[in-house]
Specification:
By secondary structure, the chain is α+β, with helices and mostly antiparallel strands. Helices cover 40% and strands 26% of the residues. Helix 4 packs across helix 7, helix 5 packs across helix 6 and helix 5 packs antiparallel against helix 7.
C-alpha cells in the first residue's frame, strides 16, 4: 500500500475547493493516509457521484489514516494525473465526507503520483452530486446580509436601511418598499464587491456595539 504524509484536509459534505473553505471549518492535519492512483474516468465518476466502495476495499484502508490526534477509521486519497480528492467512508462503504487539497499539497502529491501504480477501485454510483454554483463564501455573505435586512425591516429601522442602500447603490431612497425590493433582488444574483462591502459594513457595526 502507498501512503501520503503531512497534509491538511477539510472533510465536508460535498466537493468544495480549498479557496471555498471557511474560517469555521475544522481543518485536520493528517500525518499518514493511503493514496491510490485511478484513471481520469474513475476519478470523475467518484467526484461527480455519491456512492460506495466495496467492503473488500473498505477493509484494506481500515485504520490506516492517522491524524494529529486520532485515527480515521476509513479514509483515503485518490488522484489521477491532474486532480486529487480525499474521501471518508462509513462502515457500509458509503462516502460520508470529501476534502479537496490545498494547492501546494495537490501539486506535490501529483508529482509523487507518478511512482504509484493504477488502482481499479470498485465504486457503485448512487446519485449525481448537485453542486451549487454559488460558492460557500458567497452563500454565507448573502445569508448574512439577508438576515440583517429582515431584522432591520421587522424593527422598522428605516435610517439604517437608507444608509445601507446609499452605500450599496450610491443612491438615496426613502421608500421602504423600494429599498427592500431592490436589495432582495440584488441578492438573487452573484455577489460583487458591492455586496462584500455591505457585508463588511454590517459586520463592523456589530463589532462596534
Amino acid at each position: 500500500m502507498n501512503y501520503y504524509y503531512d497534509i491538511i484536509l477539510n472533510f465536508l459534505d460535498s466537493n468544495y475547493l480549498f479557496y471555498d473553505w471557511l474560517e469555521q471549518d475544522t481543518l485536520e492535519y493528517i500525518k499518514k493516509i493511503p493514496l491510490y492512483q485511478v484513471t481520469s474516468k474513475k476519478f470523475k465518476e467518484i467526484y461527480a457521484y455519491e456512492g460506495k466502495i466495496s467492503l473488500e476495499f473498505l477493509e484494506e484502508i481500515k485504520d490506516k489514516t492517522i491524524s494529529k490526534n486520532k485515527k480515521l477509521k476509513y479514509a483515503c486519497l485518490i488522484a489521477d494525473k491532474n486532480n486529487a480528492l480525499a474521501l471518508e467512508f462509513n462502515d457500509e462503504g458509503l462516502v460520508i465526507a470529501r476534502s479537496s487539497l490545498m494547492l501546494k499539497d495537490e501539486l506535490a502529491l501529483l508529482e509523487y503520483l507518478y511512482t504509484i501504480p493504477l488502482k481499479d477501485i470498485e465504486y457503485t454510483k448512487i446519485k449525481l452530486i448537485n453542486n451549487n454554483l454559488d460558492s460557500r463564501k458567497s452563500r454565507q455573505i448573502k445569508n448574512f446580509i439577508s438576515l440583517e435586512l429582515k431584522k432591520l425591516i421587522n424593527d422598522h429601522n428605516l435610517e439604517k436601511l437608507k444608509y445601507l442602500y446609499l452605500e450599496w447603490f450610491n443612491e438615496k431612497e426613502d421608500n421602504l418598499d423600494k429599498i427592500r425590493k431592490r436589495m432582495e433582488k440584488r441578492l438573487e444574483n452573484e455577489i460583487t464587491l458591492d455586496e462584500i462591502k455591505i457585508y463588511n459594513i454590517i459586520k463592523l457595526s456589530y463589532n462596534n456595539v
